[in-house]
Amino acid sequence: MRPRQSPVTRRRGESSPDVSSTRSADATSADGGGAPWPSLPYAEWKDTLDAVHMWTQVVGKIRLALTPLVNHWWNSTLIVTPRGLSTSLIHTEADAFQIDFDFVEHELVVVTGRGGRSARPLHPMSVADFYRQVLADLARLGVPDPRIMPVPVEVAVAVPFLDDVEVRPYDREYVRRFQTALLRTHSVFERFRADFLGKASPVQFFWGGFDLASARFSGHRGPAYAGGSAPNVNIHVMHEAYSHELSAAGFWLGSDDAPQPEFYSYAMPPPPGLADASIRPADARWAAPRGEFILLYEDVRRAIDPDGTLLTFLQSTYEAAANLGGWDRTLLEERVSCSCDPIPSTFRRARRPR
Question: Considering the entire predicted model, what is its pTM?
Fold first, then answer.
């Protein structure tokens, strides 16, 4: 979730070293592991993206409706799995269930604690059909009606799910690319999160804005949120999201207004001078209308070391926010001294590059 200061919604201190942004055609991580970072040109799969976005909203709203509120709405998000996205475990009064988007077999899978299972193919269909089918599967498996608000959020034109009868395309190849990009990004974000000792969010998928994000917190309450809200979102959602000072970063797939995938980083509240801070890599820049730093996905994808390039962006933008915001970085980043000498190698915490 990001503060909305411009129309980017879908139609819907020590410094880190710079990492060479010399381009390669399809780069893998520096250690040679993992799949290449795939090409994700927005225009080539925007209609499939719109469809999957709305489907995740249906499933995400089910999780939101049936789970207790966790600070900053962390109970509402989806998690990345090796095969797609998942609600993770959701309890009901008499059972438990989970809904998974399987972007490998291209299925929506629902499983329950009592052994129930349903699997529906993901293919071209309307949002209305998807919505009806999901609720029908839950009912057959004994899951109570979640009674969600059947209208999408964070989109400029919010067509109620049952009224959205246009058949949307489903391009399997681009969905697999999306899944690969999620996995690559999640891996880097997890490494970045591990280097912080303070309060930090999980690496989680926000189905409203359709972005994968993670946040670090200073440990202080924030001032009353006075920014804008995403379309069709009650302002209280923003109040809960930004109740405490934070520095957040994420991966976003693009929109008609900003038709390219990108990584972003912002602070809430933004400290004075943030827009003028020096950040890395050289391709990153400040997007003034939106109040955040951005680094194009394509610049990461084509870098010799995509993982290192993205990690540099995450670290340098965090450092800018933390230093200008007066965060206690010693408390938040340095482990307490330990008398174990030497520390067993399996317990050693990897140090970030300087």
Answer: 0.89
